[in-house]
Specification:
Elements lengths: L1 H11 L15 E8 L6 E7 L2 E6 L5 E6 L5 E7 L12 H14 L5 E6 L5 E5 L4 E5 L6 E2 L5 H8 L10 E6 L5 E6 L4 E9 L2 E3 L5 E5 L2 E3 L9 E3 L4 E5 L2 E6 L4 E5 L6 E6 L1 H4 L13 E7 L2 E6 L14 E6 L10
Parallel strand pairs: 1-5
Antiparallel strand pairs: 1-23, 2-3, 3-4, 4-5, 6-7, 7-8, 8-9, 10-11, 11-12, 12-13, 12-14, 15-16, 17-18, 18-19, 19-20, 21-22, 22-23
């Protein structure tokens, strides 16, 4: 039933939308250039206890612990030995294009998101293979055993059909038995799987949301135009799911069981100031952590310089909105 509803949404939500009421603006507190990421391209952030971790979509054999002392942060590489990726039902054509692209850009696994549970396990999503790697505090990394229903339902709902537009972010609950995955674009979507003994499976259906269509970039964007709706990361905080929607330059709070939008906040005023702009005609923010005091947002700048000449990845700290993240409109 849920899958049928998602399919109906994918067909209906195809028009260009313009927000009737602008989202309130978040206030920037600080920005931090990150040094020491071999592959650059910061594509995910997670907070595990008091530590911040990052991944790069160009590195398959290491993740990064961030030393956050000082205004410039330093990435400390932590090696991981990644086993062979299991067959999860992703079509050969998509997998072969990822393999071919890795020779040009590096990063066959294409790590696009990282999250942690309360036991300190880190979970990393591979966009290239639509798979999730678990890295425990001690011991070897292993790929999660995920039911092939996840891929089948996602593709039946219009997601995971295009190269380089697969899973872009993930979040897990503190107990480590529920996981949300974000399909990036064309169509974008949100999926939920639950751990059932040794296998992660759908619970009456994996798809919470699937939607296509376009929406207008914020008016602060030079020559704003309609662009595909997208998700670029997820964060779970205080029982709510927060989506990073980079083309709209906003963070949205959603119901974790239905994916319904409850409220959104914009960061366009701050990140689209002239000195912080990048030359690309779309958003580049790919990493999100939401906590009680605010949000961390990280950029995957693809080794490109922004207007002020900065080439390193950047992580920004935003203050929590007035009234906190649970505030109502």
């Amino acid at each position: 039933m849920r899958l049928g509803f998602a399919l109906a949404c994918a067909l209906l939500l195809t028009s260009i939308t313009v927000s009737a009421e602008p989202a309130p603006q978040l206030r920037l507190l600080s920005e931090h250039a990150v040094e020491g990421m071999r592959g650059g391209n910061l594509s995910g952030l997670a907070q595990c206890g008091k530590e911040l971790w990052a991944v790069s979509d160009r590195d398959d054999d290491q993740i990064y612990r961030l030393n956050t002392q000082g205004s410039v942060w330093h990435a400390e590489a932590v090696r991981i030995d990644v086993p062979v990726v299991p067959d999860n039902g992703l079509p050969w054509g998509l997998r072969s294009r990822t393999w071919a692209a890795s020779f040009v850009r590096g990063g066959d696994l294409d790590f696009e998101g990282i999250t942690c549970d309360s036991a300190g396990n880190r979970y990393i999503v591979s966009e290239g293979h639509a798979a999730v790697l678990q890295v425990p505090p001690t011991g070897p990394a292993t790929w999660l055993k995920i039911s092939p229903l996840l891929i089948r339902e996602a593709r039946a709902s219009g997601m995971l059909l295009q190269f380089n537009a697969l899973f872009e972010g993930l979040a897990i609950n503190p107990a480590g038995d529920q996981m949300w995955l974000a399909a990036e674009r064309q169509s974008r979507g949100l999926l939920l799987i639950k751990r059932k003994q040794m296998v992660w499976d759908c619970d009456g259906g994996c798809v919470l949301l699937s939607e296509g269509g376009k929406e207008m970039q914020p008016p602060q964007f030079p020559k704003a135009k309609a662009v595909p709706r997208d998700f670029s990361d997820l964060s779970l905080f205080n029982g709510k799911l927060f989506t990073l929607e980079r083309n709209a330059y906003q963070i949205c709070r959603r119901d974790p069981q239905t994916a319904r939008v409850e409220r959104c906040w914009s960061y366009a005023d701050e990140l689209l100031q002239e000195n912080r702009r990048y030359p690309q005609d779309y958003g580049l923010e790919e990493a999100l952590i939401v906590d009680a005091d605010g949000a961390w947002i990280g950029v995957d700048n693809n080794f490109g310089a922004r207007a002020d000449g900065e080439l390193r990845p950047i992580v920004w700290r935003f203050a929590a909105p007035e009234g906190g993240w649970s505030a109502q409109p």
